[in-house]
Each structure stands twice: as C-alpha cells, then as structure tokens.
Design goal:
about 120 residues; alpha/beta; Glutaredoxin; 5-stranded mixed sheet; 4 helices
Length: about 120
C-alpha cells in the first residue's frame, strides 16, 4: 500500500479531468451497471502510468465522441476496487496501468500496459 500523500497527485491527474474514483467492490459494480459506455483506468504509481496512461487517458477525451462515464481504480492502493474491476476484465491478465472500455456493463476493449 502506498502512502496517500504519494498517490494524491497521481489520483488528481485523472479526477481533475472528470474521472470518478472507485474504492470498493460495490463502487465498481455500481459504475459498471450504468447504461452506456464506461472507461475504467487502472491507475498506478509506475512510470508507465505517468508517461503514457494518464496523459493518454486525458488525450483520449479530446474527441467529439467520449465515454459516457469515466472511472478509475488505483493499483496498490484501492485493492478491493482493483480486484473487482480486474474480475470484469477477464480473460485479460492483471495489468497496471491499463484501460478498459465497457458498454452496458460488457467489456468491449482492453488496453493493457504492454500496448
């Protein structure tokens, strides 16, 4: 588990552009039960998240079409929410950072760390 003062600015990279943070299994269930498209970003303290994932998530929103809902879980911090989100990303192995696009609760696209 990382100290909150360390991860706070990394969380804010996404929350300040409209992502809602999920902390529990129920938060994840509620988010993925919403109608429409939901982008889930598995955030991380690693350099891949800082250099690519968070900037990529931000740039992806600079389009005419964007997901209806934006949510994030933080690997290494919000374990319950991360595990619940990853359970919905099967058959893809756990990866952080990563992004998953859901439509009406169904996984339609996955962007893993190595992509």
């Amino acid at each position: 588990m990382y100290p909150e003062e360390l991860v706070k600015p990394m969380r804010e990279d996404l929350t300040r552009i409209g992502f809602a943070e999920l902390y529990t299994e129920q938060d994840v269930a509620d988010a993925l039960s919403k109608e429409g498209t939901t982008l889930v970003v598995v955030n991380s303290v690693c350099g891949c998240a800082a250099a690519n994932a968070r900037p990529g998530a931000r740039m992806s929103l600079q389009n005419a079409k964007t997901p209806d809902h934006l949510v994030t879980v933080f690997a290494g911090v919000d374990t319950e929410a991360v595990n619940a989100a990853r359970a919905q990303m099967v058959p893809f192995p756990p990866s952080s950072p990563s992004m998953a696009l859901f439509k009406d609760g169904e996984l339609v696209h996955m962007l893993e760390r190595h992509h």
